[in-house]
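Good morning C.,

I know you're traveling, so I'll keep this short. The sequence:
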Amino acid sequence: MGGLTARVGGICAALFAVLFIIGMVLLTDSPDSDAPDADYTKYVNDSGNLVRNIIGAYVVIAALLIFLIFLAAIYRRLRSAEGEDGVWSLIVLVSGIIFVAMAMGGAILLASIAGAIKFGSTPAPSAELARFLPQAGFGFLLLCGGLSAALMSAVISFLILRTRTLPVWLGYTGFIAAVAMAFAVIFIPAVLFVLWMLALGVVMIITSEPERASATA
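The C-alpha coordinates, ready to paste straight into the viewer:
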Protein backbone atom coordinates (compact mmCIF):
# COMPACT_ATOMS: atom_id res chain seq x y z
CA MET A 1 0.00 0.00 0.00
CA GLY A 2 2.90 2.35 0.76
CA GLY A 3 4.32 1.91 -2.74
CA LEU A 4 0.93 2.59 -4.30
CA THR A 5 0.50 5.73 -2.19
CA ALA A 6 3.94 6.99 -3.23
CA ARG A 7 3.20 6.40 -6.90
CA VAL A 8 -0.16 8.14 -6.70
CA GLY A 9 1.58 11.05 -4.98
CA GLY A 10 4.20 11.12 -7.71
CA ILE A 11 1.58 11.14 -10.45
CA CYS A 12 -0.17 14.02 -8.68
CA ALA A 13 3.09 15.99 -8.38
CA ALA A 14 3.74 15.60 -12.11
CA LEU A 15 0.13 16.49 -12.96
CA PHE A 16 0.33 19.54 -10.72
CA ALA A 17 3.44 20.77 -12.54
CA VAL A 18 1.91 20.40 -16.00
CA LEU A 19 -1.52 21.81 -15.12
CA PHE A 20 -0.11 24.68 -13.08
CA ILE A 21 2.02 25.90 -15.99
CA ILE A 22 -0.89 25.62 -18.44
CA GLY A 23 -3.27 27.37 -16.07
CA MET A 24 -0.89 30.21 -15.29
CA VAL A 25 -0.25 30.85 -18.99
CA LEU A 26 -3.99 31.18 -19.58
CA LEU A 27 -4.63 33.12 -16.38
CA THR A 28 -1.90 35.73 -16.84
CA ASP A 29 -2.41 36.37 -20.54
CA SER A 30 -2.92 40.10 -20.00
CA PRO A 31 -1.14 43.35 -20.88
CA ASP A 32 2.05 44.25 -19.02
CA SER A 33 1.58 46.33 -15.87
CA ASP A 34 3.11 49.36 -17.60
CA ALA A 35 0.94 49.05 -20.73
CA PRO A 36 -1.23 52.02 -21.78
CA ASP A 37 -4.77 52.28 -20.39
CA ALA A 38 -6.12 51.64 -23.87
CA ASP A 39 -4.57 48.15 -23.88
CA TYR A 40 -6.36 47.27 -20.65
CA THR A 41 -9.66 48.68 -21.87
CA LYS A 42 -9.38 46.64 -25.04
CA TYR A 43 -8.38 43.53 -23.10
CA VAL A 44 -11.34 43.47 -20.69
CA ASN A 45 -13.77 44.10 -23.54
CA ASP A 46 -12.55 41.04 -25.46
CA SER A 47 -14.67 38.01 -24.56
CA GLY A 48 -11.97 35.58 -25.69
CA ASN A 49 -9.48 37.04 -23.24
CA LEU A 50 -11.94 36.75 -20.36
CA VAL A 51 -12.81 33.13 -21.18
CA ARG A 52 -9.10 32.23 -21.24
CA ASN A 53 -8.63 33.82 -17.82
CA ILE A 54 -11.56 31.88 -16.36
CA ILE A 55 -10.37 28.59 -17.84
CA GLY A 56 -6.90 29.32 -16.51
CA ALA A 57 -8.27 29.87 -13.01
CA TYR A 58 -10.12 26.55 -13.10
CA VAL A 59 -6.99 24.74 -14.30
CA VAL A 60 -4.80 26.36 -11.63
CA ILE A 61 -7.24 25.50 -8.84
CA ALA A 62 -7.56 21.93 -10.15
CA ALA A 63 -3.76 21.70 -10.13
CA LEU A 64 -3.66 22.91 -6.52
CA LEU A 65 -6.26 20.37 -5.43
CA ILE A 66 -4.17 17.65 -7.06
CA PHE A 67 -1.15 19.10 -5.24
CA LEU A 68 -2.90 18.35 -1.94
CA ILE A 69 -2.88 14.64 -2.78
CA PHE A 70 0.86 14.84 -3.46
CA LEU A 71 1.30 16.75 -0.21
CA ALA A 72 -0.43 14.00 1.78
CA ALA A 73 1.77 11.35 0.10
CA ILE A 74 5.06 13.20 0.63
CA TYR A 75 4.12 13.97 4.24
CA ARG A 76 3.44 10.28 4.87
CA ARG A 77 6.76 9.29 3.31
CA LEU A 78 8.82 11.93 5.10
CA ARG A 79 7.06 11.34 8.42
CA SER A 80 7.83 7.63 8.24
CA ALA A 81 11.45 8.32 7.36
CA GLU A 82 11.97 11.05 9.93
CA GLY A 83 10.83 9.18 13.02
CA GLU A 84 11.13 10.96 16.36
CA ASP A 85 8.42 13.61 16.81
CA GLY A 86 8.04 14.37 13.10
CA VAL A 87 8.17 18.15 13.51
CA TRP A 88 9.96 18.76 10.20
CA SER A 89 7.44 16.65 8.30
CA LEU A 90 4.66 18.64 9.94
CA ILE A 91 6.26 21.88 8.73
CA VAL A 92 6.16 20.47 5.19
CA LEU A 93 2.46 19.72 5.55
CA VAL A 94 1.50 23.09 7.04
CA SER A 95 3.59 25.20 4.65
CA GLY A 96 2.23 23.20 1.71
CA ILE A 97 -1.35 23.86 2.79
CA ILE A 98 -0.59 27.57 3.17
CA PHE A 99 0.91 27.58 -0.33
CA VAL A 100 -2.28 26.06 -1.74
CA ALA A 101 -4.50 28.53 0.11
CA MET A 102 -2.49 31.57 -0.99
CA ALA A 103 -2.21 30.37 -4.58
CA MET A 104 -5.96 29.74 -4.76
CA GLY A 105 -6.64 33.23 -3.42
CA GLY A 106 -4.25 34.69 -5.96
CA ALA A 107 -5.89 32.79 -8.81
CA ILE A 108 -9.33 34.05 -7.78
CA LEU A 109 -8.10 37.66 -7.72
CA LEU A 110 -6.42 37.27 -11.10
CA ALA A 111 -9.66 35.95 -12.61
CA SER A 112 -12.04 38.15 -10.63
CA ILE A 113 -12.59 40.74 -13.36
CA ALA A 114 -13.19 38.09 -16.02
CA GLY A 115 -15.54 36.18 -13.72
CA ALA A 116 -17.48 39.28 -12.72
CA ILE A 117 -18.04 40.26 -16.34
CA LYS A 118 -18.86 36.81 -17.70
CA PHE A 119 -20.80 35.37 -14.74
CA GLY A 120 -22.06 38.48 -12.98
CA SER A 121 -22.81 40.62 -16.03
CA THR A 122 -20.99 43.55 -14.42
CA PRO A 123 -19.77 46.41 -16.60
CA ALA A 124 -16.14 46.42 -17.73
CA PRO A 125 -13.99 48.08 -15.03
CA SER A 126 -11.82 51.12 -15.48
CA ALA A 127 -8.31 50.62 -16.84
CA GLU A 128 -6.88 51.50 -13.42
CA LEU A 129 -8.82 48.73 -11.69
CA ALA A 130 -8.01 46.24 -14.45
CA ARG A 131 -4.34 47.12 -14.02
CA PHE A 132 -4.06 46.98 -10.22
CA LEU A 133 -6.44 44.21 -9.11
CA PRO A 134 -4.38 41.45 -10.75
CA GLN A 135 -1.30 42.80 -8.97
CA ALA A 136 -2.98 41.92 -5.68
CA GLY A 137 -3.48 38.42 -7.07
CA PHE A 138 0.22 38.16 -7.87
CA GLY A 139 0.94 39.29 -4.32
CA PHE A 140 -1.01 36.39 -2.86
CA LEU A 141 0.32 33.90 -5.38
CA LEU A 142 3.98 34.84 -5.65
CA LEU A 143 4.77 36.54 -2.34
CA CYS A 144 2.66 34.70 0.25
CA GLY A 145 2.42 31.50 -1.77
CA GLY A 146 5.99 31.74 -3.02
CA LEU A 147 7.53 32.07 0.43
CA SER A 148 5.37 29.21 1.74
CA ALA A 149 6.48 27.01 -1.17
CA ALA A 150 10.09 28.03 -0.50
CA LEU A 151 9.83 26.86 3.11
CA MET A 152 8.13 23.63 2.07
CA SER A 153 10.76 22.89 -0.60
CA ALA A 154 13.66 23.65 1.74
CA VAL A 155 12.34 21.35 4.47
CA ILE A 156 11.57 18.55 2.00
CA SER A 157 15.13 18.88 0.72
CA PHE A 158 16.55 18.86 4.25
CA LEU A 159 14.65 15.68 5.08
CA ILE A 160 15.70 14.00 1.82
CA LEU A 161 19.36 14.65 2.64
CA ARG A 162 18.86 13.59 6.25
CA THR A 163 16.91 10.37 5.68
CA ARG A 164 17.84 9.38 2.09
CA THR A 165 14.22 8.42 1.53
CA LEU A 166 14.59 9.86 -2.01
CA PRO A 167 17.69 10.40 -4.17
CA VAL A 168 19.98 13.06 -2.70
CA TRP A 169 20.13 15.04 -5.94
CA LEU A 170 16.46 15.89 -5.37
CA GLY A 171 17.50 17.38 -2.04
CA TYR A 172 20.19 19.57 -3.53
CA THR A 173 18.01 20.73 -6.44
CA GLY A 174 15.17 21.29 -4.01
CA PHE A 175 17.21 23.95 -2.24
CA ILE A 176 17.63 25.68 -5.61
CA ALA A 177 13.84 25.53 -6.08
CA ALA A 178 13.38 26.98 -2.58
CA VAL A 179 15.66 29.92 -3.36
CA ALA A 180 13.81 30.45 -6.65
CA MET A 181 10.45 30.59 -4.87
CA ALA A 182 11.84 33.05 -2.34
CA PHE A 183 12.31 35.39 -5.31
CA ALA A 184 9.13 34.33 -7.10
CA VAL A 185 7.79 37.90 -7.05
CA ILE A 186 9.79 38.21 -10.27
CA PHE A 187 7.64 35.28 -11.51
CA ILE A 188 10.23 33.68 -13.85
CA PRO A 189 12.19 31.87 -11.06
CA ALA A 190 8.99 30.04 -10.09
CA VAL A 191 9.48 27.87 -13.19
CA LEU A 192 12.38 26.16 -11.37
CA PHE A 193 10.02 25.12 -8.57
CA VAL A 194 7.55 23.65 -11.06
CA LEU A 195 10.33 21.74 -12.84
CA TRP A 196 11.55 20.40 -9.49
CA MET A 197 8.03 19.26 -8.67
CA LEU A 198 7.89 17.45 -12.00
CA ALA A 199 11.21 15.72 -11.29
CA LEU A 200 10.10 14.84 -7.76
CA GLY A 201 6.90 13.34 -9.11
CA VAL A 202 8.69 11.21 -11.69
CA VAL A 203 11.13 9.88 -9.08
CA MET A 204 8.27 9.02 -6.70
CA ILE A 205 6.57 7.10 -9.51
CA ILE A 206 9.59 4.99 -10.45
CA THR A 207 11.14 4.36 -7.03
CA SER A 208 9.83 2.22 -4.20
CA GLU A 209 9.27 3.62 -0.74
CA PRO A 210 11.53 2.26 2.01
CA GLU A 211 9.72 0.29 4.67
CA ARG A 212 11.19 2.40 7.42
CA ALA A 213 14.21 4.64 7.33
CA SER A 214 16.66 4.05 10.14
CA ALA A 215 18.58 7.33 9.84
CA THR A 216 17.65 9.72 12.59
CA ALA A 217 20.83 11.73 12.88
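Safe travels,
E.
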